[in-house]
């Protein structure tokens, strides 16, 4: 059974609602029921009240949409279970007694919800209440919907918003019902999942292979219409939109070029925000390519299925009035507070700031020396690309598993740079140019540290030549990786709160590591010590370089037995790690490639 962060399985729905109300002063619980109401119920006197609800597990739906300009209240069932008739009737009575001028129930098209809300409606009408019900079915999954009709999924949230804006503006129950019914007919939603979900205390609702995704599944883990191999995000979005708008699909949404839509990109619960942004961009791009205008785009978690790693796309065809209703203000906590405007991938970019003119570069190198440098750099790049997987594997034990990716990105950037221009002839200019490439393209802490090292080494080499100069350059690079920022002292924390005077001030450091801390610096420092022999008269540079490489490789292997004193590895509970440090291994490999 998958792990869940709950207090008790049986009480998880009550606890979730209680937590939401505790953190939001605009919400109140109805005593004795899992019902959330606006705290300002008196404000609905003479206005239409809007009630919705359904099973828990879809958070922030539905309680997140209670507020001025959206729902008056919601009734929550247990996880994935319809709420009881008694609680729904209690909510209807509460808003009726507050003076509501009619009550509209907004219900997702599931048998349990229809039955329970419908029975409560009949009983309330028998008591004299003016109650209507709108059933939302926006699912575009099934080519031939069964007797139950289309399922109600994320599009329901847009109905909440449209109805809420109309009610806040003082529209009558007849007008709201009519306009909401019309909106439900120009709306469609389709889901796609990479994983199942699991009710607390239960096993997952279904299984997907590592290389599979499911199209058209419901928000309770119900099976979809097609199981297929995992696609890239852009292809997955194209597949979804094609299915949603396919005329042979009886539940399709008719979408002609020139149409204007509101787009909702909804996280089904477990998708990362990074993936959600990629999907959102792909959806906007795909719709634009079809000639569709995206009047508004909403991206986030609107109606989830617990921890399901998936996404749904909702499209609602809109005119100016519907856009105004979507834009209307609301205090509902789960509705995004966005600047009103269309979505597009064609926004004009902010011009990049102009760089200060650079000093004239040395002439480009030609001849045997330049060719030799080119070969060395190509060997370094090939070495890093070949060991990408190994570095990633080493990094998984102590970091985030991307050391190989970071070094491969550096290698690819250097290769592209070499193809685009002749290499500088002077060593100082070459190292400085390489530093610029790595600082701009490599990323991560490694990119900064390599950039610092090469920049300082280049400065040390300016106007100098000969073997001792390279030893000095190595020392200068290592010093730059360790030294303090000139004149900068931490007297306060990043939030601006001064440290107590009894605490010593800590200088800002670029790298913060020292030899023996199990970092890339261990290999660099070992090599630099060996390179000191270059300062001795008559030293054989090739022998010294070979010794430096051997020292770096030995130091890299020795990090296997070191305690981590800096970097991500220092946060690992067991500071003694079984594998050598990936940064130290990479440095030793680079030095070895230079010597080959």
CATH superfamily of the largest domain: Dihydroxyacetone kinase, domain 1
CATH architecture of the largest domain: 3-Layer(aba) Sandwich
CATH C-level name of the largest domain? Alpha Beta
Number of strands: 14
Structure annotation, total helices: 17
CATH topology of the largest domain: Rossmann fold
CA-atom Rg in angstroms: 32 Å
Secondary-structure content class: alpha/beta
Global outline: elongated
Poorly predicted regions: 484-509, 571-575
Q: Give the mean pLDDT.
A: 89
Q: Strand content of the residues, in percent?
A: 5-15%
Within the largest sheet, what's the order of strands?
Answer: 1-2-4-3-5-6
Q: How many structural units, i.e. domains?
A: 2
Bin the helical content.
40-55%
Domain DhaL: 371-596
Biased composition (Basic and acidic residues): 345-362
Function: Catalyzes both the phosphorylation of dihydroxyacetone and of glyceraldehyde, and the splitting of ribonucleoside diphosphate-X compounds among which FAD is the best substrate. Represses IFIH1-mediated cellular antiviral response.
Domain DhaK: 8-335
How would you characterize this protein structure?
The protein is an alpha/beta fold and 596 residues long. It folds into two domains: 12-327, Rossmann fold (3-Layer(aba) Sandwich); 368-482 and 511-595, DhaL domain (Serine Threonine Protein Phosphatase 5, Tetratricopeptide repeat). The protein has 17 helices and 14 strands. It has helices at residues 12-22, 85-97, 111-126, 155-168, 173-184, 233-245, 273-289, 320-327, 368-386, 388-396, 403-420, 427-441, 444-461, 467-482, 520-531, 541-558, 582-595, and strands at residues 27-29, 35-38, 49-56, 73-79, 103-108, 131-136, 187-193, 212-215, 226-229, 260-267, 293-300, 310-317, 484-490, 506-509. Strands 1-2-4-3-5-6 form a six-stranded mixed beta sheet, sandwiched between helices. The protein has a six-stranded mixed beta sheet with strand order 9-8-7-12-10-11, covered by helices on one side. A two-stranded antiparallel sheet has the order 13-14. Strand 1 (27-29) and strand 2 (35-38) form a beta hairpin. The longest helix has 19 residues, at 368-386. It starts with 11 loop residues before the first helix and ends with a helix. Homodimer. Interacts with IFIH1 (via the CARD domains), the interaction is inhibited by viral infection. Residues 371-596 form the DhaL domain. Catalyzes both the phosphorylation of dihydroxyacetone and of glyceraldehyde, and the splitting of ribonucleoside diphosphate-X compounds among which FAD is the best substrate. Represses IFIH1-mediated cellular antiviral response. GO terms for molecular function: ATP binding; FAD-AMP lyase (cyclizing) activity; glycerone kinase activity; triokinase activity. Keywords: ATP-binding, Cobalt, Kinase, Nucleotide-binding, Transferase.
